[in-house]
Amino acid sequence: MELFETITELKTTNSDANRKLEENPPATRDEVNALQQKLDDLKNRSRRNNLRFVGFPEGCEGTDTLAFICDAVPRLLNIDFQDGLEIDRAHRSFARQKPDGQPPRVIIARFLRFRDREQIVEAAQKLGKLSWDGHNIMIFPDCSKLVTDRRATFNPCRRLLHEKEFKFSLLFPAVLVLKLTEGRREFTDPKKGVMSEKTGQDWLCWVSNRHLA
Length: 213
Description:
With 213 residues, this protein is α+β, with helices and mostly antiparallel strands. 46% of the residues lie in helices and 19% in strands. It has helices at 2-23, 29-46, 65-77, 114-127, 145-152, 155-163, 197-210, and strands at residues 50-54, 87-92, 107-111, 130-132, 135-141, 169-171, 175-180, 183-187. The chain is globular, with a radius of gyration of 26 Å. It comes from Salarias fasciatus (Jewelled blenny).
């Protein structure tokens, strides 16, 4: 009798569990991906006014990173900000400091005005190579890891374009743009750009034959 009651109870419990599962099914893979995309979009929106500065040696900012960036950026890019350069916050990345001789940690700055951030990006693109006290400085958007990984897939293309001194831009989130005589050309898939040395050369021949504007 007890065994029968136990089996009946287990069947009832299993039936209740199945009913609850039908009423509240687990998220599908597509739903999870959609939520991840929304979360990633929110992350990037929150970083919209941020920039990452690579190359400033450790300790050059002293005890006030914000004041250092406010002073260094206008001189680095030769920019006269109409309303002055205002920064909400600035700090080194929270990664552990590397030993001497290793690349320094990046400095992340959040600018109060988006137009100042854009002015810095445009000036850096026009100047090309940036130098501060003998150190090469590079400026990048502060993107989420997902977007950063997508942009990194274009690194082979970018290296070849730099070697050939072609002007290009990498737009958000990951769009490689070339200005050709017949118009603007965009690449959203790095596989159509460079995936090997051979295809890279073929791709550069395609670009060279169309002459950059």
